[in-house]
Amino acid sequence: MPTIDATHAPTLRSWVESANGHRDFPIQNLPLGVFSRGDERPRGGIAIGDMILDLAALAGSGLVEGAALDAARAASADSLNPLLALGAGPRAALRRRVSALLTEGGAEQAGAGRSEVEPLLVPMAEATLHLPARIGDYTDFYVGIHHATNIGTLFRPDNPLLPNYKHVPIGYHGRASTVRPSGAPVIRPQGQTKAPDAEAPSFGPIKRLDYELELGVWMGTGNALGQPIPIGEALDHVAGLTLLNDWSARDVQAWEYQPLGPFLSKNFLTTVSPWLVTMEALAPFRIAQPPRPEGDPRPLPYLWDEADQAGGALSLELEVFLSTAKMRAAGIAPVRLSHGPAANMYWTVAQMVAHHASNGCEMNTGDLLGTGTISGPDDGTQGSLMEITRSGRQPITLPTGETRTFLEDGDELALAGRFVTDGAVSIGFGGCTGTVQG
Amino acid sequence: MPTIDATHAPTLRSWVESANGHRDFPIQNLPLGVFSRGDERPRGGIAIGDMILDLAALAGSGLVEGAALDAARAASADSLNPLLALGAGPRAALRRRVSALLTEGGAEQAGAGRSEVEPLLVPMAEATLHLPARIGDYTDFYVGIHHATNIGTLFRPDNPLLPNYKHVPIGYHGRASTVRPSGAPVIRPQGQTKAPDAEAPSFGPIKRLDYELELGVWMGTGNALGQPIPIGEALDHVAGLTLLNDWSARDVQAWEYQPLGPFLSKNFLTTVSPWLVTMEALAPFRIAQPPRPEGDPRPLPYLWDEADQAGGALSLELEVFLSTAKMRAAGIAPVRLSHGPAANMYWTVAQMVAHHASNGCEMNTGDLLGTGTISGPDDGTQGSLMEITRSGRQPITLPTGETRTFLEDGDELALAGRFVTDGAVSIGFGGCTGTVQG
Question: Would you say the pTM of this structure is higher than 0.90?
């Protein structure tokens, strides 16, 4: 398990001034991504304030050695897969070295003048951010129990939470080819739908376009086919987390999802924040998984690990913001649609991984797992419009007087996440946004 | 649409003697695959009788030029993706040239002595066959209407075929990482199951291990995100077909599949035949899609194309064989579990592709689509044990006196497919087998 060390010290400041007090990327974070500038080839980088440390340049700088150099070299390709495949050791060594090089007064202590490190920095404003990894397979879970209950109530009022929910970390396979980094346009898909009172289905632009607030899990090291991952080792296979928006066409979903689950209602786009917050960075924010409510079944042994229960939840605040074209034109700030803790997950990340591999399913470096929508039990905490508007029956009203049941063309939707805990400097993911195009 | 040309002539014979009268690989077939021998690197090949034509060697031989040379060069890598990405033109040019080079008396006519071609042949018995392509995403459909009805009857006796079935080519995302070529061991997975009368679920080796007889579709060229593929162009994006066994854990499936569909019950292994039968090779076997039964709805326009209806089905006989360890020890031939035509598909391959991309979902070279289980309406034609044994209630008896409800350790299951039509030489896929290991 990653430990809290000097790289997390709240007193740590960077000579990269924009990092100090930065909402997402203070020196305590150091998330990994892939960037390019102009026609340059994409390569790995680390976010620090409003700058990116170029890992390909770092690998060639002579400023790193040993495991950290191995990691920087592996991060010089156009995806982080080679780095993620190295596992936690080299990734942590790189973190420690980069932290030292970027610390105020630390570059010199680390045997490198700040003047040697500064040329390795690229302004984030000049960079294009890519997907951090080449995704093998993408799986979406359903661990937000309040979401499952809320949605279940809408689809199956008599039977909201199915009998398997508290025993099985329910998940299904998603589409890897349509995962995009923050900022990718949300092209309103066409689809086959049938209103409950319609005689026959029809095909055209979908009407009930929704978002889903999720976390994404990037797999570091995989397992061989036929070799399950024990729950006690599950987090060793995880590289880090991201924000994830599972855009959804609710009208398509309602018509297509029986009996094999969501398909075209979900696979037209999935947006992730391009920065991978490493397991090392989020170590201070790991908290105990909330105890299961009285009467809930104890998970089967393959899903149960005391250490995971002790530190498997996250002290992480999640938010969703909406701004319409009209709001932006009028200079009105985005409206917050929801706000809640990520602790509303019934299953931990380790339980998701252990369950996924429990039948010997081969997991690979760069695989992406979504948590499923993270909602709370109360109004203001739900992670989708489907829940907020009660399937479109209760529109919300915006400051412009506009109303919304689902997303309309021109709407910009942004997810945000912020790790917060006493005694640690808060860190975040950066943006995870998309604007709807008709 | 591929046309019937000289490469299909029934009179065509090869100087590779084993090809003439070969069950699967006469000169009229020329399927594509990836092979290696010993420590040599994997590269593309074409099956001819019991030999493989080495496409990397062909590319360097001086015996091909133009588009056929481009294709052979693209097939020199360790996956066929570069070749498949070239589309039908270069693939067909390679087919024509290889056909000429391998035809009895044809090598000389084609300006190349047989003695120049012979060194490019590798005995299949000495080769390891790999997956033909690097799979991006794997999707499984559900187009076998009799299977859907049979399974629906078992899971939902009152509601076997759901209202969307005749309007929507139902499909769901599968797991790309666990697709393997014929011969890969079928490791009996562990899983969480709950018998209907059990108080609580349990975890252990699954008991109801089944197969599913399917066809696989290899995508050639893809589409850009947000750009649907019109049905009239859908087959231009398809490279060819394969046999596919969607191994299934029925006890896991029954407990996990609501509400998001099959997951661990399906993703522990999918086996494909390693030879890709090209759209060019199967041109003589394209037949009219059977008319929809009276009263069935006409598909929406995005799924309807007259040319597809005229030639969208296949004259293809499918079979499944089982042999137990005891049968093999006693020298007893495998028992045929099912036999039926592939025309039992309610939706065509073109309809599957057009539906998949209708929402703008990005499809890529090397994507794999399964048809779903192809069953007929009658006993002896069902493509899974779930159907044959009525969910285990009606065991089958084997020549050894053994009985089976589902697969047991040591059982070997083999799929076979044979394109048959008047006036054409029959072709096949080669093997698609797996043996269960406990």
Answer: yes
Q: Which residues are within 8 A (CB) of A318 and not within 5 positions of it... i.e. 6 or more apart?
A: A213, A215, A338, A339, A340, A341, A342, A374, A383, A415, A416, A417
CATH number for region A6-130: 2.30.30.230
Residues of A in contact with B168 (CB under 8 A): 192, 201, 255-256
H helix or E strand, kind and range, residue A54: strand A51-54
For residue B385, which of B316, B342, B333, B335 has the smallest C-alpha distance? B335
**What's the CA gap between A334 and A35, in Å, rounded?**
27
Q: What is the pLDDT of residues B292-307, one digit of tens each?
A: 999 999 999 999 999 9
Q: Which of A67-81, A156-170, A371-385, B296-310 has the lowest mean pLDDT?
A: A156-170
- A404: closest CA among A343, A353, A334, A348? A334
Quick one: closest CA in B to A262, which residue? B260
Give the containing element (helix H, strand E) for B318: strand B316-323
Say how far apart CA B80 and CA B250 lie, in whole Å: 34
Q: Which amino acid is located at B430 in the chain?
A: G
Q: Which residues pair with B36 in a beta bridge?
A: B128
Domain chopping of chain B, boundaries: 6-130, 138-437
Burial class of residue B72 in the structure, from the number of CB atoms within 10 Å of its CB (0-12 exposed, 13-18 middle, 19+ buried)? buried
Say if the Cβ atoms of B358 and A191 lie within 8 Å.
Answer: yes
Residue B235 to residue B80: CA distance in whole angstroms:
18
* CATH number, domain A138-437, options 3.40.50.2030, 3.30.365.10, 3.40.50.620, 3.90.850.10: 3.90.850.10
Q: Where are the beta strands (DSSP E) in A115-237?
A: 121-123, 128-130, 138-141, 171-173, 179-181, 186-187, 190-193, 202-205, 209-210, 213-219
Question: Residue A154 and residue A388: Cα distance in Å, rounded?
Answer: 12
What is the reported pLDDT for A107?
Answer: 66
Residue of B nearest to A248 (CA): B359
Contact B175 A256 (CB under 8 A): no
The Cα–Cα gap between B357 and B29 comes to: 29
Phi and psi for B290 in degrees, rounded to 5? -55, 140
Coil/strand/helix, residue A230: coil
Q: Tell me if B137 and A187 make a contact (CB, 8 A cut-off).
A: no
Q: What percent of chain B has pLDDT over 70?
A: 99
Task: Check if A356 is active-site.
Answer: no
Contact yes or no for A162 and B361 at CB 8 A = no
**Tens of pLDDT along A34-50?**
999 999 999 999 999 99
Distance from the B154 Cα atom to the nearest Cα atom in chain A, whole angstroms: 13
ipTM above 0.95, yes or no: yes
Q: Decide: helix, strand or coil at residue A193.
A: strand
Residue in the block written with tokens 């698609």: B432
Helix (H) or strand (E) holding A379: none
Sign of CA dihedral B200, B205, B210, B216: positive
CB-CB under 8 Å, A202 with B172: no
Of A259, A268, A359, the CB nearest to B359: A268
State how far residue B331 is from chain A, nearest Cα, in angstroms: 30
Active-site option among B8, B130, B147, B355:
B147
User: Stretch B336-345: mean pLDDT, rounded?
Assistant: 93
